[in-house]
Amino acid sequence: xHNQPKFIPLRSTEFFADRRSERDPIPGTVARGQLHxxxxxxxxxxxxxxxxxxxxxxxxxxLLRGQQRYDIYCAPCHSEVGDGKGMIVQRGFxxxxxxxxxxxxxxxxxxxxxVMSHGFGAMPDYAAQITPEDRWKIAAxxxxxxxSQNATAADVAAEDRGKLDGPPIKEMNLPxxxxxxxxxxxxxxRP
Length: 191
What we know:
The protein is mainly alpha-helical. The chain has helices at residues 39-43, 60-73, 75-78, 87-90, 102-105, 109-118, 132-149, 161-164, 176-180, and strands at 45-46, 49-50.
């Protein structure tokens, strides 16, 4: 069983004159999927500085994908609103920082990409689980989440500010069953 008709890397062989079983790759070849010409896409850096721009055009589809990936990989610790009080923390683990801290609200997008790629403190890296494109989409969603949780009336366009002064939910003309009967709510009753 030890002597099989195959070449094992870095073992000697009588077949080639130099007695090596492993051959040198053809000059200029690159392993499939390993070229990474767009350095910023794969590092989040312009030189040594973390960048604050996305390497692609942001649209609704990308933001929704970022939300989906955030809910899967980030919300267990950071929570769905990013306050650092996710389910893992409720079970006794050390809480991560709130994504709404001034330090993180002012951090460039490349910071979030870098932390997801390499980990930071107790947070492990997610480079093997999340593609670079999805890490950027999560970073964009984090920025949207930060904006949504820290918005002021001044952030709303002037023509839309009147909508903020609408009636409270309890005064809106909603069918009683939509609030009082959970069986009729979309998705059924909540546990």
